[in-house]
Amino acid sequence: MSTITAVSTPNAPSAIGPYSQAIKAGEFVFVSGCIPLVPSTMQIVEGGIEEQTKQALTNLKAVLEASSSSVGKVVKTTVFLKNMEDFATVNKIYEEFFSGSEHKPARSAVEVARLPKDVLFEIECIAVAN
Predict the structure, then answer these.
(1) How far, in Å, CA of 26 to CA of 16, rounded?
(2) Which of 21, 23, 69, 73 is the most exposed place for a label (fewest CB within 10 A)?
(3) Global pTM value
(4) Consecutive 10-residue runs of the chain (130 residues): their mean pLDDT?
(5) CB burial readout 82-120, b (16+ within 10 A) else e
């Protein structure tokens, strides 16, 4: 029987609702949507889509590492964009973020009407643990 464990790290923003930063279930880690909050201030990083994308990915990496996983073990991501016009910019940063991985994760990218705290970018993922 597999164990289900909540993951929490001070190196990423704390949850802003009734959810966990991530859940480890058996051999997998399910990371909640990461938005571009600076962990120490819980404020949105200053700047536009580039800065927000980089901060959200930094937060994602911190949660993965706290889950005994890593960027190289991500198998699936879902990207949420406030504006699909930002896709090319986000895609370049995303590609750099995953450049050290042996594979490119499966991915969905969608434009949404609104994101938490009116941010421009959010990402969630599923990864292999350990």
Answers:
(1) 25
(2) 23
(3) 0.96
(4) 89 94 97 98 97 98 97 98 98 97 95 97 96
(5) beeebeeebeebbeebbeeeeeebeeeeeeeeebeeebb
